[in-house]
Amino acid sequence: MPARNHRQWNDVPGVLKPGEWVDSRIYSDPDIYEEELEKIFKKVWIPVCHESELPEPYDFRTSSIAREPIIVVRGTDNQIRAFLNVCPHRGMMIERRPSGSFKEAQPSGNPKHMTCMFHGWMFDMKGNCAFITRGEDGYQDRLKKENVGLRRLRCEVVFGGFVWVCLNDQVQSGVEEWAAGCFDCIREAVDTEPLEVFHYHKAIIGTNYKLWHDTNSEFYHDYMHYHNRVTGFNDEYFARKNVGFPNGHVNVNSFTVKYEEYEGFESRETLSFPGFPPNQWYMIDFFPGMNFNLRGSALRCDIVTPLGPDKVMIEFRGLGLKSDTPEERRIRIDHHNSIWGPFGRNLHEDLIGVAGQGSTMLPGSEPRRILHGRHEDEFIHDEIGMRHFYDEWGKWMDRSPSNPMEKYMAAAAE
């Protein structure tokens, strides 16, 4: 068919059904974005960092969820806790550094305390207020340090030592129940020995956070990745299955990657994770958009922080075994960075893809259909992962992904 006029462009292509496409406004509408923060990101469990980033008492890591500033600290009892990074006095952000330690004194404060530099209020690692400057002079007996403290948040350390935080005190389940079995495929590999972050970088991309989820969810775009075609396009690759789990999570079955088929690469069998078959590759897409990717000798985790309908921050972590020797760690880092580092073989290609999508779906752009209609019996190029995700998205938002101005109805395209 020749190029289409406006009416033809807006017609449903072929005989696709609702559920086999989404309306591009879910990627660009500012009101929908604000609603996502309230209805999804403030309600569900979000991974914010890894326990190895806080190895010692008084270590901390800062982050944010749905614009709320978060601080995660390790206490003297070795327990990791999370709080709003907000002073209860005047609403000042307590800590602006991305990470560090409170063991040494900070401006306006004493060692081993979180100190708000605005007025010098101090807090311990359990969030208790330890000191109010000139407290009795200003408050007499009307307010004491025992009456105030940091806002604690639900926090769990699970699945290989990742630190999960939920802003919702009434959340009905813990992380394990929320995961609904999707981590079982790599559970032994990540839980047998302690893990350690050896790589971190972040990217701020002009695109919607869900588009990053989508490119992780569908493998049809492996045609963009020369490395993946050379090392993986075989019968075993095309036999991989997409498996949906409750709560919108999906994992992708494994196969044996032929790394040695790509010039300059080598087998990764000697550094497999515990109980993990050599050169295998499992991936978990975790609602509402996080990704855990165990590929041979390295675990990659992507944590998305939406910054707007057309902007997302993605934090990339590479992890290995804490018990690695220096030589094992060097090799593991090389394996990770050759594919997933900032100048690796694949990652920048994915970022180019989603940036290109973001440039066509800016706020105010003409609505269009984004197709999720491939059916291949749930095998690797089936787009069921995205259909599964957006059906869950529709439930949380009470909007139809195919027409977000309408109420949610169960998708008919599964």
| Computed CA radius of gyration, to the nearest angstrom | 23 Å
Task: Give the N-terminus to C-terminus distance in angstroms.
Answer: 28 Å
Helix content: 10-25%
What is the C-level CATH assignment of the largest domain?
A: Alpha Beta
- In what order do the strands lie side by side in the largest sheet? 2-11-10-5-4-3-6
- Which stretches are low in confidence, meaning pLDDT under 50 for 5 or more residues running? none
Describe this structure in words.
The radius of gyration is 23 Å and the shape is globular. It has helices at residues 6-10, 30-41, 135-139, 175-179, 187-191, 209-217, 226-232, 235-238, 326-340, 347-360, 384-397; strands at residues 21-23, 46-50, 59-65, 68-74, 80-84, 99-101, 114-115, 122-123, 129-131, 152-158, 162-166, 195-205, 242-244, 250-252, 281-286, 290-295, 298-308, 311-321, 369-371. A 7-stranded antiparallel β-sheet has the order 2-11-10-5-4-3-6, with no helix packed on it. A 7-stranded antiparallel β-sheet has the order 12-18-17-16-15-14-13. Strands 7-8-9 form a 3-stranded antiparallel β-sheet, with no helix packed on it. The chain has 2 domains: 46-156, Rieske [2Fe-2S] iron-sulphur domain (Rieske Iron-sulfur Protein, 3-layer Sandwich), CATH 2.102.10.10; 192-397, Alpha-Beta Complex (Naphthalene 1,2-dioxygenase Alpha Subunit, Chain A, domain 1), CATH 3.90.380. By secondary structure, the protein is of the alpha+beta class. Helix content is 23%, strand content 25%.
